[in-house]
Amino acid sequence: MIDTSRAGMRCRAPRPINTWQGFLPKGLLGTIVSEMENLGRWLITVVWDNGLIIPMLAGEVEILEGEEGETHARE
């Protein structure tokens, strides 16, 4: 099932990441589109500010909350 409860929230790449679509530098910001579980893994689809749209493992993105830039992990 696709979860869109955090759609529109901002996130960032906590480290440099090579993906099959291209390179995501450390600190690059993106916007969450949706989330889903697949084969026991939580995937977050992100539209990155460099134009790439990539499903990422939950541990590969840092989700930002509010103006403070606080982060939280999926429970």
What layout of secondary structure does this protein have?
Layout lengths: L9 E3 L4 E2 L4 E2 L4 E10 L2 E8 L4 E5 L4 E4 L4 E3 L3
Antiparallel strand pairs: 1-4, 1-7, 2-3, 4-5, 5-6, 7-8
What does this structure look like?
- This protein is mostly beta strands and 75 residues long.
- It is built from no helices and 8 strands.
- It has strands spanning 10-12, 17-18, 23-24, 29-38, 41-48, 53-57, 62-65, 70-72.
- The strands form 2 sheets. Strands 6-5-4-1-7-8 form a 6-stranded antiparallel sheet, with no helix packed on it. A two-stranded antiparallel ribbon has the order 2-3.
- β4 (29-38) and β5 (41-48) form a beta hairpin.
- The radius of gyration is 12 Å and the shape is globular.
- Sequence stretches where pLDDT stays below 50 over 5 or more residues: 67-75
Q: How do the strands of the widest beta sheet line up side by side? A: 6-5-4-1-7-8
Any idea what the radius of gyration is? 12 Å
Total count of strands = 8
Share of helical residues: under 10%
| Beta-strand residue fraction | over 45%
Largest sheet report: 6 strands, antiparallel
The end-to-end distance, rounded to whole angstroms, is 17 Å
Number of helices: 0
N-to-C SSE string, H for helix and E for strand: EEEEEEEE
